[in-house]
Amino acid sequence: MDILAFGVQTDERPLIEKAFRAEGHHEVRCVGVFLNEDTAPIAAGYEAVSTSVNCDLGNRVLQTLAAAGTRMVAQRSTGFNNIELKVAERLGMTVARVSYYSPFSVAEFAWTLGMAVNRRVVRASNRTRDFDFRLDGLMGRDMHGRTAGVLGTGKIGEAFTRIAHGFGMRLLGWDVAENPACLALGMEYVPKQQLLAEADLVSLHVPLLPQTRNLLDAAALRTMKDDAILVNSSRGGLIDSRALVAELREGRFTGVGLDVYEAEAGLFFLDKSLEVVDDDTLARLVTFPNVVVTSHQAYYTVDAVGQIIATTVDNVLDYVAGRRSDNVLVPAPPRT
Q1: What would the pLDDT profile of 236-249 be if each residue is shown by its tens digit?
Q2: Of 201, 220, 277, 329, which residue is least crowded by CB atoms under 10 Å?
Q3: 48-51/72-75 β-pairing
């Protein structure tokens, strides 16, 4: 069976090709463009497509794919808010995702962002490139003894908490269910408002669902300490970006580290350096000296990407064999 993989990064291509080649029975074609209404016709004749979280699998795209023979979508991510599952089901398409990969990749990167804004690493690096070795404006603070607030304590939140525990921090958590491993580390579960009011560093590790969209809205952001650090390595839609800009304009927050952005589709993973980016909110965010924005790279380690690709291959093999795993979001229709 032939598979078309959309949105493949340069570093990913040899890993994906090698993984499918090892199976011997399936050919994969990798393209750098993302799946959307304009690029969907490329998939004509491919029974399976593999997609990334920034691909568009809405109603019209899915209809185009189905009409041209695609019967299986293998998403190379845990999140799937970009896929209209009910439409896929109606069209008789199988949809699978990667339900698990290394939580350490994202947790470690979240801390990288947190410490980068705390210790002014980007500003310091830019200065030294100009041979400016002053320390003015570079003062950070110890994390030891301060309070970490973790919104979402699943596998990634737990890994983040373990690092915070290593720093010697007080641990506050918020989630629909308490994680025994986090409790064993000394975490105290509290209401969201209390966590935001008391935490010196807040990190987001919850999925983007209708009930979590704008989890940190204007009111929630105002609850946080003026000198708090905010990190989001989960989904951009968890934060009201315009409200965040308004708070930053007031001089609030020691630092903000964002690896995701609510309107990142069509921007992240692409080179826009020679274009005019008309997203005024993102353009304003990147101008603040206490903000670091990266382009959804927290998961991007050889370990995590390797696991994602291996699971994607397994999902395709399961589809071919008629098997169903926990990764399946929309099962194949009954065979007649």
Answers
A1: 999 999 999 999 99
A2: 277
A3: parallel
Q: Are residues 117 and 51 in the same domain?
A: no
Query: Could you confirm whether 26 is annotated as catalytic?
Result: no
Is there a domain that residue 126 lies in?
yes
Positive or negative, the CA dihedral 187, 190, 195, 199 is negative
Respond yes or no: is residue 165 known to be catalytic.
Answer: no
Supply the Cα-derived Rg of the chain in whole angstroms: 21
Q: Which residues contact residue 288 at a Cβ distance below 8 angstroms, ignoring those fewer than 6 apart?
A: 248, 256
Please tell me whether residue 171 adopts helix, strand or coil conformation. strand
Confidence of residue 222 (pLDDT cuts 50, 70, 90): very high
- The answer to whether residue 144 is catalytic is no
Integer CA distances (angstroms), 17 to 23, 197, 309, in order:
10, 48, 10
Find the DSSP H helices in the chain: 13-21, 59-67, 85-90, 103-118, 121-129, 155-167, 180-184, 192-198, 218-223, 241-249, 280-285, 302-321
Looking at the 3D structure of the chain, how many domains does it have? 2
From the candidates 120, 205, 235, 252, give the one annotated as an active-site residue.
Answer: 235
Q: Are residues 219 and 279 in the same domain?
A: yes
Q: What does the DSSP 8-state code read for residue 286?
A: T
Once rounded to an integer, what is the mean pLDDT over residues 94-123?
96
Spatial distance between the Cα atoms of 244 and 263, rounded to a whole number of angstroms: 14
Average pLDDT across the chain, whole number: 95
In degrees and rounded to multiples of 5, residue 324 shows phi and psi of -130, 130
Report d(CA 172, CA 174) in Å as an integer.
7
